[in-house]
Design a protein that fits this description.
By secondary structure, the protein is an alpha+beta fold. The protein contains one helix and five strands; from the N terminus they run ββαβββ.
């Protein structure tokens, strides 16, 4: 599997920002817990090319991460398809 990951933030004003990054190696339980902690906070914080970005969740419509992390929070619904 390739180590490249993609993240797209879709904002409430219909703009978007795309990012790519290398897969980090965490144990499977740490990934799920980190996702839960990030979801519980009021902002997404990332280091991008040596600069810190803070995105308040109130300005974010949704975030798309590809490929999907190996471990999701327990409340995640899996195996879903988009129906058009």
């Amino acid at each position: 599997m390739e180590n490249k990951r993609w993240l797209t933030i879709h904002f409430t004003d219909n703009t978007e920002m795309k990012f790519d990054f290398q897969k980090k190696h965490f144990d499977i339980e740490t990934i799920g817990k980190n996702i839960e902690k990030a979801a519980a906070s009021n902002q997404l914080i990332m280091e991008v090319e040596g600069v810190m970005y803070m995105f308040p969740y109130s300005n974010i419509k949704y975030i798309r991460v590809s490929p999907c992390p190996e471990k999701l929070p327990e409340t995640a619904i899996t195996g879903v398809n988009i129906s058009l």
